[in-house]
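Work package 3, deliverable 3.1, input record:
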Amino acid sequence: MAMPAADAFIERLQNARDAARSLAGATTDAKNAALEAIAVGLERSAPSIVDANAQDLERGEQNEIGAGLLDRLRLDEPRVRALAGAVREIIALPDPVGQVVRGSTLANGIGISQVRVPFGVIGAIYEARPNVTIDIAALALKSGNGVVLRGGSAAEQTNAALVDVVQRAISSVGLDGGAVQTIDPFGREGAGRLMRARGYVDVLIPRGSAALISTVVTESTVPVIETGSGVVHVYVDETADDDMAVDIALNAKTHRPSVCNAAETLLVHRGAADRLLPRLTDALREADVSMYGDAATVERIAGIAPADEETWATEHLALEMGIRIVDSLDEALAHIDRYSTRHTEAIVTRDYASAERFLAEVDSAVVMVNASTRFTDGGEFGFGAEVGISTQKLHARGPMGLPELTSTKWLVRGAGQIR
Amino acid sequence: MAMPAADAFIERLQNARDAARSLAGATTDAKNAALEAIAVGLERSAPSIVDANAQDLERGEQNEIGAGLLDRLRLDEPRVRALAGAVREIIALPDPVGQVVRGSTLANGIGISQVRVPFGVIGAIYEARPNVTIDIAALALKSGNGVVLRGGSAAEQTNAALVDVVQRAISSVGLDGGAVQTIDPFGREGAGRLMRARGYVDVLIPRGSAALISTVVTESTVPVIETGSGVVHVYVDETADDDMAVDIALNAKTHRPSVCNAAETLLVHRGAADRLLPRLTDALREADVSMYGDAATVERIAGIAPADEETWATEHLALEMGIRIVDSLDEALAHIDRYSTRHTEAIVTRDYASAERFLAEVDSAVVMVNASTRFTDGGEFGFGAEVGISTQKLHARGPMGLPELTSTKWLVRGAGQIR
């Protein structure tokens, strides 16, 4: 596909901006009708979407992008129908726009109220996962935002077909289909321009690898919501219940190792090591987890490779785990402070004071006592939708729901008051 | 003063970071005791602070920095006592740290609660206003944050004296005085390094000129809360009450022209121009306001200079105002959309539909009906403290109180649940 002219890039941003203005005032009913039209459109257009996807897959195979990437890129008809189902779930969620957050009547009689409003235009940068295209588009639409999508050149044909379905569906119910734009045709240069599109884009959400997120965070002049990477710790305290410690460590590591809330490092209190380390490592080995241990762990347990500095800092996203014996809760807290990406950490303990100290002192988006780190999830938290998991402290921290895709404004109603 | 060695810069950031960790767990009582000690310290050290300030003033006069800047820089003993009074007002404010924002018990029995926690370390970049040094330090302390201050080389001696008082006061009650740091000795290079100090600084707040804010926003890799500049509009609708229109326009422009919530542009509906424009311009002229009008205004009213494109885009912060006659509410909304910095806009009207459309469609932090734009203020809104007025959409929008200086984290309490 030939690259469009440069001003075509700005035109797409401007279209999203113009559409966002009208979308901000759209009723929940109208937005839900658009979402239903998208779901129906996806089901009807499934064959042509799968055709477009086949072109991307063929190109991906030629370019040898790897089996994992190819699998994430692949859309068959059942997967397209699953996308339609995900869109219908978003219809059921409450609309955050117009919610009154707080308000009061001032002493001089002026009424002030803070209400939720859409950001305007959300930019999304992600990697070759067509499901994210539909996911973000639907969440943005429900929260009244326009969206500019940069989904990676490997999924360009698929994303173009999906965005075409979405735009037609939105227009079919009388809203502005321009609200959803893709800039895939503009390649890497387009991604770079999106990061500097102040005035067109109100917030940028990167989803994907740590490298992608780091690039967006450091190069963007548009405000960013940082999502994602998780070097997640499970700390087994001296007083941990034995079965609970094994269940939680195993679940946190192996339930779904490829996601950000999976555990990467197991810290075990020296006082629990004799009784628990053999059980923990046996269970992990049975689940095919490759383990890397500190010197004390390697000395105690046969067949564990020595860990190095990189072990502790790595988000494996695979059946691999670092294991370290610590002398105290303090040493566990210090290890976490040094290596955590501040996503999720859990302690397994029966001691009240240890639990409360861990909750108070670990500086992560989610801090847990006696639960699997896999519960850090918008769906599990009852938000109904997974916008992503913020690992920054500004605006949103932890699992993000629809309200996190809004800003607020103050409405002030007076009767002629002056100062 | 000789510039300290480069690693001394990182040392100050690290000191703030270490202190912030202990401050996060400090009780409200302990933080209030530190604030009282600061107030007492300022009163006792007033003579030496004034001496330090005299050195800055002398240098400022030699460098011919101008009368306005010199006045903002000047501290006499009454002004120092006023700073102590401002610190005592912050003691009276509720502590946001530890507030439970929301929470629930999940179907599986896990309890989740979202609580307010300090950001960690706040960076502040501002210009030669020693009162901001105390203001930000006290607000940061109350909200449990460390703070790194870059207050401008013109106020370096004054800021050093103030920070010394603050550090000693915090230490005197058993908290870590390193929580408040100045990087003034590191000059412009220090400001640049602060903007890239990811891992040391959690959020950066610029306060000052539009140019300063723009530099910080575009150059910073640390998340920024953008405050400030206001190209603020008052729109007099066709149906406006005559007296109210004059009162609000005059108050919005002249009550305190040097601040960001002062009006810069007056838009008047053509249908109200015959009856109101002479009264409005007479009142503004009597208040010594220089006016710049569009062609229609210049034609109607003698002695008004023609406006140009720059008039509409300028935050005058002085007794100057642009005046434009618009054909309709739509034209007023379009003008505001084009030139507003999205701080505050007000409509004066008796028409319900116009009022509601203005509230819904103006995309600014604060949108008003029949009230002076001067009410956009943390104190007026009942927040008790003025951290600044955010003109961005992420995290905080409009007047910011102490809660806006916090993040949140999720505390999860389980009984061994796994997925």
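The first strand of chain A starts at residue 100 and ends at 105.
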